[in-house]
Amino acid sequence: MLKTTIEQVHKHVGEEVTIGAWLANKRSSGKIAFLQLRDGTGFMQGVVVKSNVSEDVFALAKNMTQESSLYVTGTIVEDTRSPLGYEMQVSSLEVIHESVDYPITPKEHGPEFLLDHRHLWLRSKKQHAIMKVRNEIIRATYEFFNSNGYTKVDPPILTGSSAEGTTELFHTKYFEEDAYLSQSGQLYMEAAAMAFGKVFSFGPTFRAEKSKTRRHLIEFWMIEPEMAFMDHDDSLQVQEQYVSHVVQSVLQNCKIELQTLGRDVSKLEAIQAPFPRITYDDAIQILKEKGFDDIEWGEDFGAPHETAIAESFNKPVFITHYPLEIKAFYMKPDPERPDVALCADLIAPEGYGEIIGGSQRIDDLQLMEQRYEEHDLTGDAYQWYLELRKYGSVPHSGFGLGLERTVAWICGIEHVRETIPFPRLLNRLYP
Ligand code: 4AD
Ligand code: MG
């Protein structure tokens, strides 16, 4: 018998095939059983008609329990009502393993219960769709950077210092020394850009922030490109092209998943470069007009501010030129106005907030040394980073895109905890 997968059934219309699957759900009457099958590649209905199969097979179909594993054999036929477009007319079944009392039933469950059962929850249709979109974003990311002359370089995860100059770090012992889990690979990516020109990284990032919002994870994945000989404006162009490519790739390659998620695709179709740019000063103005009376120049924006600003746009919007004071030590001051940085945050539409933070970096040795003093970055840990400004320093820029926030936005789901296979949250390290 020809073995195939649900993803491939379109190639086998009219043929009899066998698929290894699990029973996601089931409906049956005296004469017919509808099996909702999943095999990891997708979801498909199997129809078992009593008069077409042996008595044993029909009894198996009627009595099979949720999440039992099976080999199912039958003929693939077109079915215009299902998102997949095909179903199977089942001729025989073989149970591999019978599942007893599967905890996640078709009824509603609360989020804590589902998170406690994340190892099983991943099997359900919506979670499957989210992970498939995540995978497509990762694929399109590699495609974009590989086809635009970037080299992937992997920064270390165990580091001797803080990349963002903040204290939200996970500490660990490194034999006799102190070490921290990386909160950004950026500083290493700057070294890599001086060796390879245009580089990108994709890896786990750790933030020991006590934040408990729908946008914060303790462990998340970040894509960090860094480009030699590119200024702030050049970097914004890369960002808008990259984000557009990712969204258009998901639209093209995840049609079934977006349908499963009930995503309004017209909102995603609008995501094409260029994206609007406003300055931090403009943003303060917009906020005041929208009734945020107490926001003062020099304050950072919170989620409600970002949401209010994004309301005016149907594309992601760059907020540029933030006050230098509230940004990281490595950002280059605007030569025309040194109290603001050559930087931008990219704010997603529909209330999803900041998905990218980026900037042009200081390339002048003296200025960087001055920053070290101001930020109290003493000791050996940052010496190598200064040397990048000593030996053939060039203008360079880079940015970091948070994968999970991007997945949440593209999928149109409420909380980042569903966008990563096993979320690490303030109160959750299980499973
Ligand atoms: O703005 P951030 O902190 O920027 C950096 O780390 C820079 N060093 C990046 C660079 O220029 N190479 O983080 C970048 C992005 C944010 O815009 C957000 O999308 C995501 O990372 N992010 C988080 N995602 C989930 N949970 C958290 N706790 C996050 N913190 C940041
Ligand atoms: Mg940021």
How would you describe the overall organization of this protein?
This protein is an alpha+beta fold and 431 residues long. It has two domains: 2-97, Nucleic acid-binding proteins (OB fold (Dihydrolipoamide Acetyltransferase, E2P)), CATH 2.40.50.140; 118-418, BirA Bifunctional Protein, domain 2, CATH 3.30.930.10. It is 29% helix and 27% strand. It has helices at 55-63, 111-116, 118-121, 125-146, 186-196, 232-253, 255-260, 265-269, 280-289, 303-310, 365-374, 383-387, 403-411; strands at residues 2-3, 16-28, 32-38, 43-49, 69-78, 86-97, 151-152, 158-159, 171-174, 177-181, 198-206, 219-228, 277-279, 317-320, 333-334, 337-341, 343-348, 353-360, 396-402. Strand 15 (333-334) and strand 16 (337-341) form a beta hairpin. Residues 163-164, 184, 186, 207, 209, 216-217, 220, 222, 224, 354-358, 398-400, 402, 404-405, 416 line the site of 4-amino-1,4-dioxobutan-2-aminium adenosine-5'-monophosphate (4AD).
Summary tags:
alpha+beta; binds 4-amino-1,4-dioxobutan-2-aminium adenosine-5'-monophosphate; BirA Bifunctional Protein, domain 2; elongated; binds magnesium ion; OB fold (Dihydrolipoamide Acetyltransferase, E2P); 13 helices; 431 residues; eight-stranded mixed β-sheet; 2 domains; five-stranded mixed beta barrel; 27% strand; single chain
Set out the fold topology.
Blueprint: E1 2-3, E2 16-28, E3 32-38, E4 43-49, H1 55-63, E5 69-78, E6 86-97, H2 111-116, H3 118-121, H4 125-146, E7 151-152, E8 158-159, E9 171-174, E10 177-181, H5 186-196, E11 198-206, E12 219-228, H6 232-253, H7 255-260, H8 265-269, E13 277-279, H9 280-289, H10 303-310, E14 317-320, E15 333-334, E16 337-341, E17 343-348, E18 353-360, H11 365-374, H12 383-387, E19 396-402, H13 403-411
Parallel strand pairs: 1-2, 4-6, 7-11, 13-14
Antiparallel strand pairs: 2-3, 2-5, 3-4, 5-6, 8-10, 9-10, 11-12, 12-19, 14-17, 15-16, 17-18, 18-19
Helix pairs in contact: 4-6, 4-13
